[in-house]
Amino acid sequence: MARRPRKMKWFVADLVMEIKVNGDAHNVVHVNTVLVEHAYRSSVELGRSQAWKPYSNPAGRKVSTRFVGLGFFG
User: Fold this and answer.
1) Amino acid 17: pLDDT
2) Distance CA 61, CA 69 (A)
3) Distances, alpha carbon 12 to alpha carbons 16, 34, 57, 70, 71, in Å
4) How many domains does the chain have?
5) Within-domain flag for 64
6) Distance (Å, rounded) from C-alpha 22 to C-alpha 26?
7) 61 falls within a domain
8) What is the mean pLDDT of residues 13-35?
């Protein structure tokens, strides 16, 4: 089992990601729940890094994602 220093605090963050497919009228919003240290800054950096490079889906349409923001629930 991993150990952590006593002063280290961990938080749960919900990364809100928007997924768009060119030609579709609706977008999909995905919430990715992650465990982070140093809550806000780490969560924002992680969210920004989660955006995928655009790619083509099996139907040949461009798919892209973007980081929309954080949702903290408590």
Assistant:
1) 85
2) 25
3) 13, 6, 31, 11, 10
4) 1
5) yes
6) 10
7) yes
8) 86
Residue with tokens 């150990």: 3
Report the predicted TM-score, pTM, of the whole model to 2 decimal places.
0.48
Q: Residue 62 belongs to what H/E stretch?
A: strand 62-71
Asked whether the predicted pLDDT for residue 35 surpasses 80, the reply is no
- Dihedral sign for Cα 59, 22, 17, 66, please: positive
In this structure, the strands spanning 10-21 and 62-71 are antiparallel
Q: Is residue 2 part of a domain?
A: no
State the residue range of the domain holding 59: 10-71
**Residue 38 maps to a domain:** yes
Q: With 60 as the cut, is the pLDDT of residue 1 above it?
A: no
